Amino acid sequence: MKMMNYYKIKIIIYFFMSKSMLKLLFLFITAVPILAQKKYGFDQICERTSVQTVPKDIPKALKTADSLYRSAEAPLDKVKSLLLSADLYHSAGEFKKSICYAENAHSLLDQIDDAEWFSRVNEFLAKEYRLVGLHERSKKYTLQGIESSKLITDSQTRGEILGLLNQEMAYYEMEQGSYTDAVKYIESSLNSFGKDTIKENDRAVAASYQILGDIYFRLKDYAVSENYYRKAESMLKEKCCVLGLVYNGLGGIRLKQKNWEDAEIYLKKAENIADSSRSLKLKKAVYSNINDYYEGTGDNYKASLYAVKYVKAYDSLTARNREFAVIAPENVGKLNKKSTQISLVKNTAIILLLILLIGIVAFFKVKQKKQRSKFRNIIRTQLQMISSRSEYLPLKTENTDFSNISVEEVDDRAGVSDKKRNESLMTSETESKLLELLEEFEKGDLYNNKNMSLSFLAAELNTNTKYLSYVINQHKNADVKTYVNRLRINYIIDKLINDEKYRQYKISILADECGFSSHSKFASVFKAVTDFSPSAYIKYLDAENQSDKNVHFPENN
């Protein structure tokens, strides 16, 4: 009996021991997949957030990225989550935050030993700084990325990243006007992407072809340019910024060829993409070409509408780039509260550099203001000389260039018969009142009205054409046409001196701004008043102010 009980106890102990062993064995078997899931789940969430969530809900994706950062323990995971946030802000068009997060990721690179992510962060920053107009800083990150990408072991990943970095170098060389070097970088880019994996990088490869199209367009080799645009178009199946630039390029070629019908087709496709895009560069380029199309076809009304759109895109792009230009790049990372603390020594250095930068900016602003004031005085002195000459030179004769300008906007039909004083024409009180009214008229901008004429102005001043013609001839030393044209040119000169954006506008836009119906009439009157053509005057003004070399509508040059 005792023997039987002993065996029963032994069997029970063995049973429980067997169950424990099974549990341990189960835990051991499942431990590896669980650890693997934890290890690779971070990357999977990053990828899913980037690819699947972004088109639907960027705020939701940003919350996910923020959660990933807070849960990340390894520096590499922090870099990945920060770059994910940067990419999301880029998609939302918030470049300041995008650069902020990417700079924070860059500050952690010295804590990791991963050539791929070192290269990805540098490539992203190179692209962002290019888009906000900081080309030298973009080049710095591009070169860093190229060096680190050479250490990537996976050939496909290495080729993909090197291809994008070579594109950035091509953009930089284009900005410098070195088109031959730009072509070499694009060829390197295409070689890096590789023929075997071209389908996996179709959009990036298409971007390389699109850039080549832009380069040869600027070199005026339109046949080669169109060939590359066609290659890019064949690779793009969905709407995107690159496809918009391709259509705009094809439309630009047709404009140069004066093939208005085909130009309209391509430019409508480009506009369709630009209107739904956040890219100000694309909008600016497309609206510029459409403006040229309507000017070429003689539709001045629609041309003016797209001129306004162009100016709006240009101003937005300039404002955004100027905002970044005054921010010390070293301070960008400080905007993110979650970034790692910078050492006291580095903080002190940054503050000193910032103070120095502010001092330099202030110095050049004061210097620029003095130069502008000096130039303004030169111009005003010139205008006074022109005005004073009118006291002893006839302003309207059949042989002078100025008098022969047919300006349809102003009509002086009272003739020269009222120039001689007629004592019975009006009382001295009426004459004084009209002079006061004319002084008020000169302070406003009614003279820019395209309907301006002697009768129109007389009605505005509540007088008759004879009185008005007499007072202008007698006291302003000019006929009505010359008087109004001089006011218009003085108005546009003041705008060119005091507002830099006016120097970026087309001459036709300046003409429209001050009431002239055509480029040629405005240019003729401008030169008659200032002795400069509008374009020469603007170049001289830019040189005096040591401004950047901005070219009007650079997309169309």
Q: How would you sum up this structure, described in words?
A:
The protein is mainly alpha-helical. Among the domains are: 198-326, Tetratricopeptide repeat domain (Serine Threonine Protein Phosphatase 5, Tetratricopeptide repeat); 336-383; 428-549, Homeodomain-like (Arc Repressor Mutant, subunit A, Orthogonal Bundle). Helix content is 72%, strand content 0%. It is built from 22 helices and no strands. It has helices at residues 2-53, 58-71, 75-91, 95-107, 115-131, 135-149, 155-176, 179-193, 202-218, 222-235, 241-256, 260-275, 280-297, 300-325, 344-389, 428-443, 454-460, 465-475, 480-498, 507-513, 519-530, 534-544. The radius of gyration is 34 Å and the shape is elongated. Residues 1-40, 49-54, 328-340, 385-424 and 547-554 have low confidence and may be disordered.
How would you name the CATH homologous superfamily of the domain at 198-326? Tetratricopeptide repeat domain
Unreliable stretches (pLDDT < 50, length at least 5) are: 1-40, 49-54, 328-340, 385-424, 547-554
Q: Which range best describes the helical content: under 10%, 10-25%, 25-40%, 40-55%, 55-70% or over 70%?
A: over 70%
Fill in the CATH topology of the domain at 198-326: Serine Threonine Protein Phosphatase 5, Tetratricopeptide repeat
CATH class of the domain at 198-326: Mainly Alpha
- State the helix count: 22
- How large is the radius of gyration? 34 Å
Strand content: under 5%
Give the ordered list of helices and strands. Answer: HHHHHHHHHHHHHHHHHHHHHH
For the termini, the CA-CA separation is 110 Å
Secondary-structure-based class equals: mainly alpha
**Major beta sheet summary:** none
Q: Please give the number of β-strands.
A: 0
